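Q: Convert this sequence to structure tokens.
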Amino acid sequence: MFELSPGGPADIWSVVALVLHGTAAIAAATLAIWLRPRAARLGTAGQATVAALLATALWSLAEGLELRGTLPITVLQVARDLAWLLVIYRLFADDGRHSSLAPIRPVLLALVFVELALLSIDVLVGEVRIDAEVAAIAHGLGVMLHLLVTVGALVLVHNLYGGAAREARLSLRWPAAALAVLWVFELNLYTVAYLAQGWPREMAALRGLATMGLVSLLAIAATHGREALRLRPSRAVTFQTFSLLLIGVYLVGMVLIAQWLSYVGGDFARLIELCFLTVASAVALLALPSRRMRSWLKVVMTKHLFQHRYDYREEWLRFTRTIGTTGPDAAPLGERVVKALADVTGSPAGLLLVSDDNGEPSLAARWNWQGIDGPAALAPDFAGFLERENFIAELDDMRQQRGVRAEVPRAPAWLLDDPRAWALVPLIHYDRLVAVVVLARPLLKRKLDWEDFDLLRVIGQQLASYLAENASQEALAEAGRFDDFNRRIAFVMHDIKNLASQFSLLARNAELHAEKKAFRDDMLVTLRSSSEKLNALIARLSRYGTGGIDRIEEIALDEVARTVMARFAGNPQVRLAECERLHALASRHSLEQVLTHLLQNALDASPPRSPVFLSLVAQDGQARIEVVDSGSGMSPEFVRNRLFKPFVSTKSGGFGIGAFEARELVRAMRGRLDVDSREGIGSRFIVRLPLKVSSADATRASEVA
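A:
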């Protein structure tokens, strides 16, 4: 339709056109050959698409050879356009809309008529001699007809995808995009040609890119798994792209205004232009980086570019990072709870009101919020309403009594009087109000919508579970401290019970033998021993809960064994079977207490006149102290699960802490207490303690090594 450029060597744009169109022709022909046996993947439009690709390949070759202005290129372009119009019609036929939509066929017939008119005009101009003025009119008419074809084709493509059912869009997405790429480029090309009153060779040389885009999108449409290929730009990328676009529009506008001022400014044009550029640059530097501008951009993009306000993946990751922060520099849990919720709405500050035992939420933590001097709490009726309804309150509506239900109690005055307070979010855990978060007004004022409410409720439930878990841990720690205190008292009662038994026995014997000097001497020894035990008990009370004992020192184990045996001197059942001279690092008093308890338990479990043996030997670098009886014995289940469990006893009136205390004392001396017992046979308690290694032994060991 347009004249060729003057002859001569091919310029750079001719080379670009040849390369791009040649590549596009190869791509189109390759896809047509590959698609031929797989045409069913495109439904009823498969065969038409193959034909259209072949026509496009031939047309691209002619364009690359710059045959514009000849009859073959016109015929090929008309054939290409008609083939793609047929593809559009067959795509309409896939879901039956070619018959249900009455305008489809008339529009297609009209476009076919326009294409034939284009062909007729080109034949007329090429075959009939006409003057230059008529030829120019014919060329302009040809451009207008091309524009009409591209606009009509784009309207059909839009209706093809926009009017399709939700399920049908999955298969139409890529073919529609491919056709849109082709016709949008054609629209821009012929628009420029019409405005410039000539053929834009530079832009026309790039038509091969549009053809390659068409082929690429059709290849995606014909492949398996295409439904999973969706363009999903992240919100961060979209925000940055939109920001760059806004900056570009601003710069273009600033340049246009500056140029206009230079034309109309007269003698002071340069000064006016310079002043304008200075003021505009200052405004840009102040406005573009501001938080308010960024907030406005995010709201605009979210509202118009995305189906949902929030990127839920990004929100969840940010929430997890905020609430899961640990370490010495981490903010307290209350502040992290407020920040995690405030980040959702872009609030710059917030308060955390935690429910007390009376169900009244009161101030427990704050984040970036200062200036609350008086009491900050919610009335029970208002807190109860928030709990029952899981109601997220917008305080501006409450201040203006706008859209608030009559049954909603009035918010406290300290909240309504503070202009920073914007919204109340209840944190509900198992239908119980754990806390309430007060959010400050964001920089960009807006109303909360259904998506805000849903996300705030979900995050509120998660935060409520964190707060409830933290409260449970604190309660458990407090219960542990009480348990430790009760355990101390139980140990004290156990030792006092033993001392009370000794005093009772001493008092009864004193009534019978007080006049005897030997008894009085023995009584003094007993009283001195009981006094030492009471002092040791007082010292031990300060150690419970710390895992330590009074003092570790070198002691003679054989002396400890003989001292313990002396306490049972009046009982012939207790016998010292073997006693080697050994030294160990231990606590003398604690070891005496352990052995006394083990011997007494062995006596209680043994029948009268049944012997109980105490032995002390060295074994494998350790002192092995055994207490053996032939009493009733214990089952493996009892030894494994109940013997060393505090407050579990088989004795009537027993506290059940003796064995537990003995094991803990041995462990504190870096030793070990083992048990070997058989029901009906007896028990063996083995205390192992590390021996004290002398310097001579250490020297001999090093020489041997």
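The CA atoms of residues 281 and 632 lie 97 Å apart.
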